[in-house]
């Protein structure tokens, strides 16, 4: 079990005292939910709801980026990089 859990209601990290989710917890969550990005978004979305109740003075966009905005960073294809995976089906390959 990680020591990088949220300390509520201030939403700091119990392991490193950075804003939660901290970089360490983000890495852990990416690994834990590598094959389930929707589940990760739902999990973090529930925390986002709690955080908006605990920190009503924080702009919604800031909290959204903090809790959910980073989750798609690794899932998005990089511009100019072509998928050369031969195991990908024709339906998932991009046409050029």
List the helices and strands and how they pair.
Layout: E1 6-7, E2 12-13, H1 23-32, H2 37-54, H3 60-67
Antiparallel strand pairs: 1-2
Shape: globular
User: Which stretches of 5+ consecutive residues score pLDDT under 50?
Assistant: none
Biggest β-sheet, characterized? 2 strands, antiparallel
User: Major sheet: order of its strands?
Assistant: 1-2
Based on helices, strands and strand pairing, what is the structural class?
Answer: mainly alpha
Q: Sketch the topology as an H/E string, one letter per element.
A: EEHHH
Mean pLDDT: 84
Approximate strand percentage = under 5%
Domain tally: 1
Helix content: 25-40%
Record field, number of beta strands: 2
The quaternary state of the protein chains shown equals: single chain
Distance between the termini: 45 Å
Tally of contiguous helical segments: 3
The Rg value, from CA coordinates, equals 16 Å
